[in-house]
Structures
1.
Amino acid sequence: MSERDDDIIEFDFFDEEPETEQATQRRPALRSRTRRGGDGRPPRRPTLRAPQGVAPLLRLVLFVALAIFVVILLVFWIQSCRSESRTNAYRGYMEEMTAVARASEEIAVGLNEQLTTPGTRQADLVQAVQGLTDSQEQVVNSAEDVDPPGPLRAAHESAIEALQFRVSGLNGLATAFQQTTGSRDAAETGALLSAQAERLVASDVLWDDLFKDPAREELNRQGISGVAVPDSNFVRTPDLASQRSM
């Protein structure tokens, strides 16, 4: 071995000397600072975030809830419109029937005047009653032109029947007055006239029992308020139709 080789060996030996105790103690401290972030503070905990699928789900739930709310509002609005439309239909019908009832009552007033006016000639009375009969037939035609709501069709037919009874009664009175012209038998004449006048009384019963009362019941069943069912009385005093009065 040469002298140069001895120098190299000696150099390598001193270059790889073992770590001192101080260097060994610095390593754990270095690792600790590395874990803490280099400045000695503890590392920050990661922020908890909602999974990516939660936000779209929440938006979907809100959208569905909003859609349900809108549908409920639409249902209430439609029901309100239907209720108002139904009420208007019944109100319009009753207004038309009120006009019919008043027209018929005006005819009854004319008949009462003819029957109670002293000194009226028989021929004039017959002509007046025939004119009242024609007017009552026009009232019947007006009632037939009225279109009732579905649930009131049966009641409406009864109202028309009551008005037709008035036509029949007036026509019967006119015929009876013609037949009794010049008769001196007051009892026989009274009986004949009273039989025809009873149809007028019956018309009032038909109107009340088969039209007015059922119509009121139907309005109550439908929950409709503020709509009046017209009354119609042809014979104001039932005694007027009696045999004694005639």
2.
Amino acid sequence: MYITREQAASAIMDMRDFYSSLKEVYASSGMNIEDDLGRRNILMSGPQEHFFAAQIRSNFPQTYNNGKTGEPDIVIPELSKHLECKLTTRHRSGALSFQSDSMTFEGHPDGVDFLYVIADDAFENFSVLHFEGLVRDDFHAESSGSRGKVRMKKHVAMSKCNVLLGEVIDRRDEFIDRY
């Protein structure tokens, strides 16, 4: 593993500071960034890549983040690793959606690493999940109209997950206990 719990916590603190400034910019123009959490997450995805790459760079100095469409979010040349970064928030139903672009896996037979940051609505509480070596079979088939997006098969992929911050609760266990 090339990123630690402490590094994840530091990157999250940097993201929170950045978000606080961004929220003020929105407010100064009479807008509320939290009115559309999907758009908020899009705006914060670049800072996520930047701050996590900076933390990884402390151990692997050649690490860089690209941000260009079709390119890996973070590249760690010393380890020949590519890290895809995703920022998500719970849906109104309480569900979490871990997605990827289907073409992310092309040319990566050994899999792709993912860093999913889950933020609450107020951008104050977080979980950070680091998946190593996810392959296309760890995701569902493309749905019609999904524009190339695929959903993670959580029951399959969680075996490849390192929980850096927060906790993972298998809701199936909760349902079994309830019944």
3.
Amino acid sequence: WVCLVALVVNKLSCLCFWQDIFDFREKLFNVAIEEHLKVIQIEPTDLGAHAALANAYVLLSSLYADPRKYPDYDEEQWIPKERYGVEVQEKFRFISERAIEEFKILNEYAPGNPWVHLQLAYSYHDLQMPQEEIKEYESVLLLRPNDVETMFKLGMLYFQQGNNAKGLFIYEKIKKIDYKKAKQLI
């Protein structure tokens, strides 16, 4: 009985406050984006400003991301349908594409930066664009050839996309460096 009451109270609380909290966070992120855009208008080639803007877009896109698609999603937790509705998903896609454009600008002005390629890979992952994600992880490996974590993510993508020969090649490379990680890949 007590569990049922707690569940009802939790749902009621979520229903009453989720939209207010969501709107407040959305407004804060949008203000941050507007401020970064003002800085870029003054200094259009300032890489720090572009990086800050890209990060602001990433933060806003994470607000719009469908929580059901993340591994730490708790199916017991109630989420209003509006939280993952069509309008929110359109906003997610639009803002994620803006973040990608900022990272592409950073890549043009500072080529060879693994952080930029990793951010692009994460963005492509969120947008469910595996081929583009693979290209970015391949770029990171060219810059950091012994990065086991990147190799692992790339190997997983190769196997998921049916590129088993490439996945096995990555497996062999990881096996020489970290046998336990290689076993996780298979």
4.
Amino acid sequence: MKSSLQIEKPFFTVDSALFTVQEGDLKVLMAKRAEPPFKGLWGLPGGFIDISIDQNTDMTARRKLMDKTGLNPNYLEQLQVISGALRDPRGFSVTLAYYALVAYQIVGSKISSVEEARWISIRELPNFTIAFDHQHIIELALQRLQQKTL
């Protein structure tokens, strides 16, 4: 007997909070969105898993970082899974967040869905409107970095 229950599948994405120190200033890598939702707002580099080319979420994270910022970090660490119905206006979303502290590099977008990629000072971040719940992810990643330095 078949069930009549229809199960909606959530979106599954990967987002990366990368930090660097430049001239004594802690900065986070951000990408300005060129497409909806949140067109024109800043967010963490990330996006949907492509099961036709990504063998795992680590590959997704690295692919999205390269496409959206031109950066290929030597090291990435999984931070946390974040999920909820209100994360994304398109529907229930699950993201696997990564983070790392990396050496400063010049960055730039290599994909049309990103208007601009750049390092933004943590001190200046309150002056920006951040897409999705990426401000929360940045705060989680900063807390983890602080825990690792104690």
